Amino acid sequence: MERFGKFSRVLNPGLNLLIPFLEDIKYVQSLKEITLEIPSQSAVTHDNVTLHLDGVLYLKVVDPYKVKIRFLLCQTTQFGNTRTKF
Q1: Residues 70 and 37 both lie in one domain
Q2: Using one digit for the tens of pLDDT, what is the confidence trace for 20-46?
Q3: Which of 5, 29, 42, 55 keeps 20 to 30 A from 79, CA to CA?
Q4: d(CA 29, CA 76)
């Protein structure tokens, strides 16, 4: 929540009182579990066997104050791609 355009506090679930025209909610973060699909990849093992890998990542936001969802999705997908290669 912002007061006069500057961050003031994180609103908790339930009833929250706002002062009209002074306080504004700029961003709403969902705390639901997020599912990301990792694209299919192929890899070659030490004994020259070709593997086709794909996967699914499940994310859950624990602290909405610290998360930036656009960067979170991109970074997590890249992390999942690199983990399937090892």
Answers
A1: yes
A2: 888 888 777 777 888 878 778 787 888
A3: 29
A4: 17
